[in-house]
Design goal:
heterodimer, A: alpha+beta, two-stranded antiparallel sheet, 10 helices, 10 strands, 34% helix, globular, B: alpha+beta
């Protein structure tokens, strides 16, 4: 499995073996294709998630998917995008940032919802989180997200998986989403969360350039109290890792944070926490599968580790025939 | 090295955040609306992988169901990596499945151990049809409805 290959390569990397160069390439290697049986479950799981998206009656949904089950560090979701209904001729597609291996830079892509939902790193178990917004915030986010000038206006020029959220040097996939939200909600004529005005949220005409968009979004996020996910880790490997791994960086993080071994990074969890706090009326559905068991949970709290259903959760068994 | 396991987990997480674009994105960018290149080892679009008894058109997906006998395994002209299975329904009558031709990669067939004379089962799915074989029964190839196959595509957003 690709994540485990990554992990193994990383272990070799961190222990100083000759695998360092290979690791940077492994991230871009073609992942193992799921077996037909695994893909059967993923597609049926994806169909159930899609039912929830369609049943919401909305035309935009925040959607996050899991990577490895890294419950030891309380990280379930690693990648977030914006699901759009009827955009560019597709019934549902996810607009998102990926690192383009060929070009070695971040790019915004549209991916069919089925592709997004089945593009998991672990076919055996997977989680999807859907956040539905109230009409005003949904409308402003949608109009911003479908506008390519805006969607690309908050796209950074350099990719870093651990990008610092209040710097425009680099950007990761989740940072693009939170900056898109900020871009949608901070500008005149757009519905902002119920919080005091940010410094640049006022009434100035929208005369900004693309270069301003990211800084403005980050300024607004900081003023709104956006809190990224904090990883506490030895900064020592990061002093030399970026030399080998093109999608990691150190230079955008404040020295005082590095001194305390803290990496502030936008993750799906930090985006959802922000939306939950700032957008009254937003709701969340979490859906997971472990093998052929599917669990559906409504609420901002998480399904238990291992996709174990709670008392009020809906459980669906995917029959093998 | 006391912090290594946690550090390792964090960097593994960041590796996932990297969210690299699948290499297929390049193909998708040049043929975003096409499903003609959708055949993989475990799945393909209905229009690429399934033909009806006339051998020239796709069958009614809903009529591809139940047990089938593999009556022939034939090479496909110009496509050395794939073979075509002629599938005849085992049962007859109103509930019997429709006769079909299924194109799958040679490697898929070899891994599943399917040869002429074998019995395979077509299972109706929300996304299309799962073809399964052996005991315990396991899917060996998925025929994706064309709209589902198209919904797997990835295309860069450009001005």
């Amino acid at each position: 499995m690709r994540p485990l290959v990554r992990g193994a390569a990383l272990a070799a990397l961190l222990t100083g073996t000759a695998a360092a160069h290979a690791f940077s390439l492994d991230v871009c290697a073609r992942p193992r294709e799921p077996s037909a049986d695994e893909r059967d479950v993923l597609l049926r799981f994806g169909a159930l998630v899609r039912e929830q998206v369609v049943a919401s009656g909305q035309d935009i949904v925040l959607v996050a998917r899991s990577g490895l089950d890294l419950h030891k560090i309380d990280v379930r979701y690693s990648h977030e995008g914006v699901a759009l209904k009827d955009n560019d001729g597709k019934p549902w597609s996810v607009r998102q940032l990926y690192y383009s291996c060929e070009e070695r830079r971040p790019r915004v892509y549209d991916e069919g919802l089925t592709g997004f939902l089945t593009g998991t790193d672990d076919p055996a178990i997977g989680f999807v989180s859907l956040v539905f917004l109230p009409p005003a915030q949904a409308a402003s986010l949608r109009s911003t997200a479908v506008d390519k000038h805006h969607a690309l206006g908050v796209l950074g020029a350099s990719y870093s998986a651990n990008a610092y959220p209040f710097s425009t040097l680099h950007q990761n996939c989740n940072q693009w989403v939170i900056e898109l939200l900020a871009d949608a909600w901070r500008r005149p004529g757009r519905e902002a969360p119920d919080t005091p005005d940010a410094p640049d949220a006022a009434d100035a005409p929208d005369t900004r350039t693309d270069a301003d968009a990211r800084a403005g979004a980050q300024s607004w996020l900081r003023a709104q109290g956006y809190l990224p996910t904090v990883f506490t880790a030895s900064a020592h490997p990061m002093t030399w890792l970026p030399a080998f791994v093109p999608w990691l960086s150190n230079d955008d993080h404040p020295p005082e944070e590095l001194a305390h071994n803290r990496y502030n990074v936008s993750m799906p969890a930090s985006i959802e926490t922000f939306v939950q706090a700032k957008v009254p009326g937003a709701t969340r559905v979490e859906i997971c599968h472990a093998g052929r068991r599917v669990v559906l949970h409504r609420g901002w709290d998480d399904i238990a580790e291992g996709c174990v259903p709670g008392a009020s959760d809906q459980v669906i068994e995917l029959a093998s025939d | 090295m006391r912090h290594l396991p946690k550090t390792l987990a964090i960097f593994a997480t960041l590796a996932l955040v990297a969210g690299v674009a699948p290499l297929s994105a390049l193909a998708a960018s040049s043929a975003a609306s096409s499903v003609s290149d959708s055949l993989t080892e475990s799945s393909g679009s209905v229009s690429d992988s399934l033909k009806g008894s006339s051998h020239s058109s796709s069958p009614d997906n809903k009529q591809v169901k139940g047990d089938y006998k593999v009556t022939d395994v034939a090479a496909v002209d110009g496509k050395p990596d794939v073979v075509e299975l002629h599938l005849q329904p085992v049962t007859t009558g109103a509930d019997a499945g429709a006769e079909v031709y299924l194109t799958v990669p040679r490697t898929t067939l070899a891994k599943a151990g399917i040869a002429e004379g074998a019995t395979v089962t077509a299972l109706q799915r929300p996304y299309g049809i799962a073809f399964a074989a052996n005991q315990p029964r396991a899917a060996f190839f998925l025929a994706l409805a064309d709209d589902v196959a198209a919904d797997m595509k990835l295309a860069p957003v450009t001005l």
